[in-house]
Amino acid sequence: MKIMEALTRLRNKKNSHRHRSKLLKAKAYQNQLFGSSLRRRHW
Asked: pLDDT for 1-43, tens place per residue?
């Protein structure tokens, strides 16, 4: 199971890098901002 998960993850990484790297970067950036704001609220 774990091996299959790793393989699918690698495949997804390759595909996303090829096709949607810009979208993923934007999403990651938004998640970072959201996470940091949540952390600030917690403290």
From this structure: 688 888 888 777 766 555 567 777 888 888 887 777 766 665 4
pTM: 0.35
Domain count, the chain: 1
CB 16 within 8 A of CB 24: yes
Query: What radius of gyration do the chain's Cα atoms show?
Result: 15
Q: By residue range, what is the domain housing residue 21? A: 2-42
CA dihedral 26, 28, 31, 36 (to 10 degrees): -110
